[in-house]
Amino acid sequence: MKQARTFPMAKVTKKQERSLKEGHPWVYEDEITEHSETIENGAFTDVYGQKGNYLGTGFWSENSKIRIRILDRNANEKFDDAFFARRVRYALQYRKDVMKDDFHACRLIHGEADGLPGLTVDRYENVLVAEVLSYGTEMHKDVIYRELISQLGASGSQIEGIYERNEGELRLKEGLKQYKGWYGDRHPEETVFRFEENGLVYEVDVENGQKTGFFLDQKYNRLAVRKIAEGRKVLDCCTHTGSFAMNAAAADALSVDAVDISESALAVAKANAALNHLDGRIRFIQADLFDLLPELLKNHADYDFIILDPPAFTKSRKTFINARSGYKKINTMAMRLLPRGGYLATASCSHFMPAHEFRTMLKEAGAEAGVTVRIVEERHAAYDHPVIASIPETDYLKFFIVQII
Description:
By secondary structure, this protein is of the alpha/beta class. It has helices spanning 14-21, 81-99, 135-139, 141-154, 170-173, 219-229, 243-250, 263-275, 289-298, 320-337, 355-369, and strands at 9-12, 26-28, 32-35, 44-48, 54-60, 66-72, 105-110, 119-124, 127-132, 161-166, 179-182, 192-197, 200-205, 233-237, 255-260, 283-286, 305-308, 343-348, 373-379, 398-404. It folds into three domains: 9-72, Roll (Archaeosine Trna-guanine Transglycosylase, Chain: A, domain 4); 81-196, 2-Layer Sandwich (Transcription Regulator spoIIAA); 215-404, 3-Layer(aba) Sandwich (Rossmann fold). The chain is built from eleven helices and 20 strands. Strand 5 and strand 6 form a beta hairpin. Helix 2 packs across helix 4 (141-154). The protein is globular and about 70 Å long. The N and C termini lie far apart (69 Å).
């Protein structure tokens, strides 16, 4: 006998139905043609096509343009605590499979890519840092956090606390308050911790650092830079915590200049370099990238490996054109600075700048700089930040290493 549905319902357009069938989990406000008269914010909501065919169940968000975030397409799913426990187990098992010895410091939950909408959880040894950007997920975070601590404990990791960085503006669009702080009563007193990555030690400030305190997604891209840096004169732009500069110095680069506009970021980078006894091998410079590169060109600065890892230039489709222009400008200047045979590592962390657009931008920058660009390697985020083929938003990080020939 077919089980009667008890959740509120929403019907969607044929366009939205196609998108859901292709695997994208978001239902937009404008694509809903009718719905139950009363749906509480965060409630489980069944989604149907125009012919009444079941398409999945997700969280209702009364304040967001993304009105429903699909959790599952199984009509027999109960969406109880056991459901969320399974999602946590699947996410942890995937990281154990792909991260191996790096499981101690990695992203444990990557939102929609792990079937937990709007939730990010990063691990730094025995401390977790979380961000919740979905009203529905906020309502069920207790069971998710409990399962994380329990399942990690069962595998030998005693988690000391979960620090929440719930400060993002998207929380306001979800009808959620902004705040940061320790979750629950059991947690360490301090908020600065050390962890190891690629054989280097870092201090992470989970309270004040950007995002969750550190950018774990570039983990293996930093190793790719290390492979090339030996014997080279390196310029690391937007160094932030100094990670690319330190990997270059650890590879016996001939010289390393690390640049950032933020005085506080440079203080962190200097401290990290000192932790690894690399402070005497890296020169730290406070400067705006758009001011520095023209000055270096004017003075014919001598570098043969440049790293460009700027913050996202665009966080919406509306600013895409200006952002693309910004990426092209800094990449063109970097290419002009480099000699024949020099290398450029360049990145974009915005999903609004798709890989094909970034690749085209590099071609245009090379033409404007009057050089030929050889693509040595095209990379993405580390494996702990999985990409779902049907959710292009999960493929946000682009990282290219190119050579000037």
